[in-house]
């Protein structure tokens, strides 16, 4: 059985009026499993908060809690200053798109999208125009009369998204909204959706484990793991200044090197990274694969560290290498990238240099 605990904090009503969504101290348990533990999070009015994290971290539970699907909240989930405890799902005025879509099977695509417009008492001609506009937005122009049962999983998900947007909810809750789509469509829709949310100043919470989705859509990103918020930040800042190795690891850093900052430059055995304004001292650098460039030794690009290629794998626009680095203290192997015009063989020696664009400074 699930228990739901909240610790109500006395925030003055005046300050909360335009605050959008605010969670304080939310704890949700399933029997002996604590799915959420003392969550403090907010999505200010008009902003998109992405909640990112590994599988089982509590993302869906968080969304369901905000939606009111978890039963009796007791006051620390608020929207626009209003305490939502006791407010049932259908009275919250929130739009939801969950992974399983949940379309009305007895209505066609237009009937589903139209539903939200009818709720807003939009006239017939305007409804038709709006349905067409929303279907075009989600890449389903002309699908009005298609039966819901004849849609692919990804198409159904897009209809669910159009239906939620049609209702112009005061808060939009999206659970992996683009996960069922192929890469091209996902990228296009993420950009369109970001634009739409921003133009309509919609407040939204997007739950995802996809970094691109989170960073395209969000004004702020929260990293949730094992029911706790590890860090909440503006996307760019989170990307370049993750709090610790766990967050950095989730954001793609695979190698960690000790370095030192002097005069706004962080130096480590692989090279240096400009970091203007950072105070001098020890630092831990997190390197993504794209933060280490490899060159065949014959090209003699630098006098930095060297390593031996252990493995290589072809990606769509570059080749990724696993490189053994006996010279580097504390690191056996690291991931590096190499241009696909100069791919070394396994066993070959490569020179390594740091690419600041793929690095992060931890704990700053
Ligand atoms: N109905 C349930 N009964 C018991 N435990 C549950 C239930 N739903 C979720 N949990 C547990 O709560 C924790 C958080 O689950 P949740 O589904 O919120 O994670 P998630 O981050 O959304 O995962 P995913 O990315 O895999 O969807 C997990 O440990 C999960 O096993």
Structural account:
By secondary structure, this protein is an alpha+beta fold. The chain has two domains: 2-240, P-loop containing nucleotide triphosphate hydrolases (Rossmann fold); 253-361, Nucleic acid-binding proteins (OB fold (Dihydrolipoamide Acetyltransferase, E2P)). It has nine helices and 21 strands. The protein has helices at 13-16, 59-67, 109-119, 124-137, 153-166, 183-199, 211-217, 235-240, 245-250; strands at 2-5, 21-30, 33-43, 48-52, 77-79, 82-83, 94-97, 171-175, 203-208, 220-225, 228-233, 253-262, 265-268, 271-274, 281-288, 292-296, 306-314, 319-324, 333-338, 349-354, 359-361. The strands form four sheets. It has a six-stranded mixed beta sheet, with helices on both faces. A hairpin with a 2-residue loop joins strand 12 and strand 13. Helix 3 packs across helix 4, helix 3 (109-119) runs parallel beside helix 5 (153-166) and helix 4 (124-137) crosses helix 5 (153-166). The longest helix has 17 residues, at 183-199. The radius of gyration is 24 Å and the shape is globular. Residues 1-17 have low confidence and may be disordered. The structure holds adenosine-5'-triphosphate. The site of adenosine-5'-triphosphate has 12 residues, from strand 3 and helix 2. Residues 21-251 form the ABC transporter domain.
